[in-house]
Design brief:
Strand content of chain A: under 5%
Largest interface: A-B, 90 and 87 residues
Number of domains of chain A: 2
Oligomer: heterodimer
Structural class of chain A: mainly alpha
Distance between the termini of chain B: 44 Å
Radius of gyration of chain A: 22 Å
Number of helices of chain B: 8
Distance between the termini of chain A: 62 Å
Number of helices of chain A: 4
Strand order of the largest sheet of chain A: 1-2
Number of domains of chain B: 3
Shape of chain B: globular
Structural class of chain B: mainly alpha
CATH topology of the largest domain in chain B: Rna Polymerase Sigma Factor, Chain: A
Shape of chain A: globular
Order of helices and strands of chain B: EEHHHHHHHH
Largest sheet of chain A: 2 strands, antiparallel
Strand order of the largest sheet of chain B: 1-2
Chain lengths: 126, 215
């Protein structure tokens, strides 16, 4: 790494924790200057963003195994947020199909799914 | 039937809960949903292995997109868009080739399209830098899963206080300012605690991977 690794770490953390658009832009400007010419800094950047993404995805894993932490969590909210990406795909497809169909299809969620994690939803044909 | 669960989409008979009599001509370039075969099966939905590929790719795609757009909410939106495009292009996927580079390329286009829309606000990472980041990330895509596995173990090893801090910080809707206020410390002090904890996690991941490489 050509520059100061501590400065890179500071900027990476400041970027993801910044509370204003101005602060983000300032961090990004400095980061861009470092990343353009430093492959190891870019690798560090990707690793940091990978960590940030994984923690956003799995934040619940940091607390669910240890209830004594005193952290009140709503389990699986983050996972559901991701699942919503897929839900959107299905919703868009279903909506478009409903809008353009000649018939009047019915989409009816049944009760419980076939088991599995997190209250899986099941859509069945009747 | 399709099952939508927290781990993605589960395919079975592929009927999406629609009556077989209904015929659909889907507009907007959206996925063609329902070309029912005489036996009631569906020939136009992506095959189950494609759905499995997309489902397994979600985390890697999210990390990849985040490295391009640098904003969590934007990354969520782009991932959603990318999933829709992947679905639409399912028929174009060549199953003899690796899925992840193809999916990442599509995610990259979606990410760049979003940045273009927001170009006035996000000009600091220019096109050349973004292309460099994306190309290098694609070349190292295989590393992301081992790092995530290592992270799970590293979270277990964190002292309880730091583990709880990370859990609160990454709870949806959380912010450094709100957390600092909740703990009665300054945002700067809280940011420093987060920085140290992330550094511990990154170092732990490196140690874990190095140990595994030696084993």
């Amino acid at each position: 790494m050509n520059g100061h690794p501590d400065e890179l770490e500071r900027l990476l953390n400041a970027l993801v924790d910044a509370d204003s658009a101005e602060a983000v832009e300032e961090c990004e400007a400095q980061l861009a200057g470092i990343l353009r010419n430093d492959a190891s800094a870019r690798r560090r950047y990707r690793e940091f963003m990978g960590l940030h993404s994984a923690l956003m995805w799995d934040y619940v894993a940091a607390a669910t195994d240890r209830p004594e932490n005193g952290v009140v969590m709503e389990p699986r909210r983050a996972l559901w947020r991701r699942a919503l990406s897929w839900a959107a795909v299905i919703a868009v497809a279903g909506l478009a199909a409903a809008l353009f169909s000649c018939g009047q299809p019915e989409i009816e969620p049944s009760g419980g799914g076939p088991g599995g994690i997190g209250g899986r939803r099941r859509f069945v044909e009747r | 039937m399709l099952y939508l669960g927290e781990r993605g989409l589960y395919g079975g008979g592929m009927q999406v809960g629609l009556r077989p009599r209904a015929k659909f001509s889907v507009g907007f370039g959206a996925p063609r949903l329902n070309r029912m075969m005489p036996d009631g099966s569906d020939s136009s939905l992506p095959p189950a292995d494609f759905i499995a590929h997309v489902t397994r790719a979600q985390r890697t795609l999210h990390a990849f997109i985040l490295s391009i757009v640098r904003n969590a909410a934007d990354a969520d939106d782009v991932l959603q868009e990318a999933n829709i495009v992947l679905w639409r292009k399912a028929a174009e996927y060549d199953a003899t080739r690796e899925f992840m580079p193809w999916a990442m390329r599509i995610a990259q286009w979606q990410a760049l399209a979003l940045l273009k829309k927001k170009s006035r606000a996000r000009v600091t990472f220019d096109d050349d830098l973004l292309a460099l980041i994306a190309e290098e990330a694609m070349a190292e895509a295989a590393e992301t899963d081992p790092r995530r596995v290592a992270l799970a173990g590293c979270l277990e090893k964190l002292p309880d206080g730091q583990r709880a801090l990370i859990a609160r910080r990454y709870e949806p809707g959380s912010s450094v300012n709100a957390l600092a206020e909740e703990r009665g410390i300054s945002p700067k002090a809280l940011s420093e605690m987060l920085r140290r904890t992330r550094q511990m996690l990154l170092n732990c991941i490196e140690r874990t991977l190095a140990q595994e490489a030696r084993a």
